[in-house]
Specification:
By secondary structure, the protein is α/β, with parallel strands linked by helices. Helix content is 13%, strand content 25%. The chain has one domain. The longest helix has 10 residues.
Length: 119
Amino acid sequence: MASDLHCDASKCVYNIQQRCSASRIQVKGMEAGQADVIFCATFAPRKISNMLGMIGNINLLGSLGELISKAPSLKPEVVCSITSCLKNNGGACVTEDLIIGGIASIHAGETSCQSFIAR
């Protein structure tokens, strides 16, 4: 689990002020050793249908906690399929500062894991 997840994918339904409100995200991509081919597969564009569909993966307590206290409490579980990343430990991302890029992204493949470090 990432202790601090910064997300630039502002058009994602889970994005709340550059934080991720999902309970669990999946980082996928090619084992090419480049951050630009590694992406957040959980990304979903802000649409009514996606908002309704996200209910099963929302971190409700974390979202409410941030609204009340303003302290970072959105800490999704991060599942990662990129075994060539130094921060992948048995399929889980163990970085303390996960950064998902893609400020203009409208599809999951346009996002990127900026925290990737090749083994």
